[in-house]
Specification:
The chain has 232 residues and is an alpha/beta fold. Helix content is 49%, strand content 12%. The chain folds into 2 domains: 143 residues, Rossmann fold (3-Layer(aba) Sandwich); 70 residues, Winged helix-like DNA-binding domain superfamily/Winged helix DNA-binding domain (Arc Repressor Mutant, subunit A), CATH 1.10.10. It contains 10 helices and 6 strands, in the order βαβαβαβαβαβααααα. Strands 2-1-3-4-5-6 form a 6-stranded parallel beta sheet, sandwiched between helices. The chain is elongated and about 60 Å long.
């Protein structure tokens, strides 16, 4: 059997059972695609990817426990040979560019026809980057007209600008008091904002939130001293 005859191995990640079942039914019609596992959130996706080492992960974005942005970043970091293809209902620029920053190799909307999904899965498995027509036009227009540091490229689009600013300062090793002084906020306000950030990132601790921020390029790479890691 030649490589061309070997089906592309896929893990499907979506938290909605009906939607996931529909995706599985569509992919089952294509003999050149083999769904080896399914997952209901990003955390489960990491386990299935480590277990099966698929060629492609078909990834939803907005999910509980761990969202698709974080899962994509971790998969592409740990398994650079595995392609992540986003399949989502969200077509806003913040979601698109956050997914690309996380390492997604393709971006499709859930309204895509089955043949388009198949074609894109096969393309990203070959190392190509492919997007649905409307998304591709916006990506091209963005990178030909916008400055490199446009805010749409910011990670964690589900955080507010203030929360992202605080997360950046956390990643540089600053404690609550220093952040409060820097941003002219009360320590209580900073403490509450940090708690909100941990919830939105599904981070179990301040240190884990800092690690996620640094993985996304926020903050500095210097290690945080133990005395700087206080309770939010």
């Amino acid at each position: 059997m030649s490589d061309a005859d070997i089906p592309v191995r896929v893990v499907v990640v979506d938290d909605h059972p009906v939607v996931r079942a529909g995706i599985l039914a569509v992919l089952a019609d294509f003999p050149d695609i083999d769904v080896v596992a399914e997952a209901t959130d990003g955390a489960a996706a990491l386990e299935e990817v480590a277990r099966h080492r698929p060629d492609v992960v078909l990834m939803d974005l907005k999910m509980p426990t761990m969202d698709g942005f974080r899962a994509t970043a971790r998969i592409t970091s740990r398994h650079p040979g595995i392609a992540v293809l986003v399949l989502t209902m969200y077509d806003d620029d913040a979601a698109i560019f956050a997914a690309l920053r996380a390492g997604a190799r393709g971006y499709l909307l859930k309204e895509a026809a089955g043949e388009e999904v198949r074609r894109t899965v096969l393309a990203v498995a070959r190392g190509e980057a492919l997007f649905s027509a409307g998304i591709a036009q916006r990506v091209l227009a963005f990178f030909t007209t916008m400055p490199a540091h446009h805010p749409q490229l910011s990670p964690f689009p589900h955080l507010t600008d203030r929360e992202r600013e605080i997360l950046h300062l956390l990643a540089t090793g600053q404690n609550n008091a220093a952040i409060a002084q820097r941003l002219f906020l009360s320590p209580k306000t900073v403490r509450n904002r940090v708690s909100d950030i941990l919830i939105k990132l599904s981070a179990r601790s301040r240190a884990e939130a800092v690690a996620l921020a640094r993985d996304a390029g926020l903050g500095e790479q210097a290690e945080i001293q133990a005395q700087d890691i206080d309770t939010p």
